Amino acid sequence: MRVISGKLKGRVIKGFDIDGTRPTMDRVKESIFSTIQDYVYDSVVLDLFAGSGNLGIESISNGAKKCYFVDHNKIAINTINDNIKAFNIDNAVVIKDDFKNALNSLINTKFDLIFLDPPYKDDYIDYVVDFVTKNNMLNEDGLIICEYENEINKNTDLDIYKEKKYGSKKVVIFKK
């Protein structure tokens, strides 16, 4: 797993083998970032269910101002911290907590990009999208990028910016 673009391009991201995580495939990540490239620079990012920090690190590599990495898995948090240290990233906040607690602690933070790549067996995306919109946590023109396998609720106050299928995985990008 590598950083595919930006100032950290080509750097190897540690953590593709963390038990209980499923890293975003490079071709999917490349497609996502080509779609959102105009929104990344100077953005405030939330990488919820961060795993290795792959998506947040890619955002930082492409000029994000700040990234919040959230995961409840101790190994994932250690891996994110190792990656941040190895890449000399100084604009990251790492939070080890359950996603609901983390969202509540970040309720007064406005995000430009929110990455949601939760375990596929759980339907956390609907909860998070609803929570974020009800609490106005997304800046104007902000995006929520969701990777999922089972169906999700797309009837939100947000617009669908783009949808794409990659084998059994799907990505939908909501826009405020």
Q: What's the topology here?
A:
Blueprint: H1 26-40, E1 44-48, H2 54-61, E2 66-71, H3 74-86, E3 92-96, H4 99-105, E4 111-116, H5 124-134, E5 138-148, E6 159-166, E7 169-175
Parallel strand pairs: 1-2, 1-4, 2-3, 4-5
Antiparallel strand pairs: 5-7, 6-7
Structure explained in plain terms:
- The protein is an alpha/beta fold and 176 residues long.
- It has one domain (26-175): Rossmann fold (3-Layer(aba) Sandwich), CATH 3.40.50.150.
- It has helices at 26-40, 54-61, 74-86, 99-105, 124-134; strands spanning 44-48, 66-71, 92-96, 111-116, 138-148, 159-166, 169-175.
- It has a seven-stranded mixed β-sheet, with helices on both faces.
- β6 and β7 form a beta hairpin.
- The longest helix has 15 residues, at 26-40.
Record keyword descriptors for this entry.
5 helices, 31% helix, 176 residues, 7-stranded mixed sheet, Rossmann fold, alpha/beta
- What is the annotated CATH architecture? 3-Layer(aba) Sandwich
Oligomeric state of the chains in view? single chain
Q: Find the CATH topology.
A: Rossmann fold
The biggest beta sheet reads:
7 strands, mixed
* Overall number of domains: 1
What percentage of residues falls in helices of 4 or more residues?
Answer: 25-40%
Low-pLDDT residue spans: none
DSSP summary, beta strand count: 7
| SS field, number of helical segments | 5
Secondary structure class reads alpha/beta
Q: Please compute the radius of gyration using only Cα atoms.
A: 15 Å
- For the biggest β-sheet, the strand order reads 3-2-1-4-5-7-6
State the fourth-level CATH superfamily: Vaccinia Virus protein VP39
SSE order in H/E notation?
A: HEHEHEHEHEEE
Shape: globular
The CATH C-level name is Alpha Beta
Averaged pLDDT: 92
